[in-house]
Specification:
InterPro entries: Cof (IPR000150), HAD-like_sf (IPR036412), HAD-SF_hydro_IIB (IPR006379), HAD_sf (IPR023214). It holds the Pfam family Hydrolase_3. This is Hydrolase. The protein folds into two domains: 154 residues, HAD superfamily/HAD-like (Rossmann fold, 3-Layer(aba) Sandwich), CATH 3.40.50; 105 residues, 2-Layer Sandwich (Hypothetical Protein, Haloacid Dehalogenase-like Hydrolase, Chain: A, domain 2), CATH 3.30.1240.10. 36% of the residues lie in helices and 21% in strands. The protein has ten helices and 14 strands. It has an eight-stranded mixed beta sheet, with helices on both faces. The protein has a six-stranded mixed beta sheet with strand order 8-7-6-9-11-10, sandwiched between helices. Strand 10 and strand 11 form a beta hairpin. Helix 2 runs parallel beside helix 10. The longest helix has 15 residues.
Length: 270
């Protein structure tokens, strides 16, 4: 079946280990777009954190799409929201209280790319998030925000060993009604229970009238597995986790050796 949509994770997939786009990646994506293939960045980042890469890849217009916040929001590159699934204020407050009680750094993102934290001693991971996403950082207690304030996702962040230790308790506390996923060694994320990259990709494919066999996905981590389970062609990066590789149909080279471009050339381009 001809590939008509390629979904790409960003960190450690689209970008190399230095957070840069390889020239080979840009060329392969441009070829795909020129052939009429939708190239959809599918990421935990907000739109503000995706925009520089969309520009560098020359992906623009209201008929091109991005999946942001790990699937909480589907929107056009022009910013038109197709669908969104948020977390309510009560759960936002519970997450904040949990982080404070267990001394785990915590922040949230709203649907406008803003990052909020109630932590006064802001963890370096949160600072990097603000910088990467061009979002800045707002230090606010829940009581300082509107009673109907909703979030796209909450993130416990920081030292991987601390997150390893607290992850089972987070799952026990929130896992019965929220989607809890370890998105990387520095991120433990909580979202609306219907949210994941795979469901968002499935929803977008339905809107575009595409069959799963016409969709290819590339990723490297646990939060990419729902994409792999949906698409007809799942490609794990050579630098990806063992779990990602086990779920994929194919394993390509690493993000530093042009593995993404090689996968696009081999499995998607005519």
């Amino acid at each position: 079946m001809t590939i008509r949509l390629i979904a790409l994770d960003i960190d450690d997939t689209l970008l190399n280990s230095e957070g840069k786009l390889l020239a080979s990646t840009i060329t392969a994506v441009e070829k795909a777009v020129a052939q009429g293939i939708k190239v959809v960045l599918c990421t935990g980042r907000p739109l503000a954190g995706v925009a520089p890469y969309l520009k560098a890849l020359h992906i623009d217009g209201d008929d091109q799409y991005v999946i942001t916040y790990n699937g909480a929001v589907i929107e056009s590159v022009a910013g038109r929201v197709v669908s969104k699934h948020l977390v309510d204020n009560a759960d936002y407050r519970k997450m904040t209280a949990f982080g404070q009680e267990h001394h785990v750094p915590f922040n949230v993102l709203d649907e406008d790319s803003n990052i909020y934290t109630a932590d006064r001693d802001v963890n370096w991971v949160t600072v990097v998030q603000g910088w990467e996403n061009k979002a800045g950082l707002l230090i606010r207690d829940p009581e300082e925000l509107p009673a109907d304030f909703q979030i796209t996702k909450g993130l416990f962040v920081g030292d991987p060993k601390q997150l390893d230790a607290v992850e089972p308790l987070v799952e026990k506390t929130f896992g019965d009604h929220l989607y809890v996923i370890r998105a990387g060694e520095y991120f433990l994320e909580l979202m609306n229970p219907v949210v994941n990259k795979g469901q968002a990709l499935k929803d977008l494919a339905k809107i575009l009238k595409l069959d799963a066999s016409e969709v290819m996905a590339c990723g490297d981590e646990k939060n990419d597995l729902p994409m792999f389970d949906f698409v007809g062609t799942a490609v794990a990066m050579g630098n990806g986790s063992d779990e990602a590789k086990a779920h994929a149909n194919y394993v390509t080279g690493t993000n530093d050796e042009g593995g993404l471009a090689a996968a696009i050339e081999k499995y998607a381009l005519k």
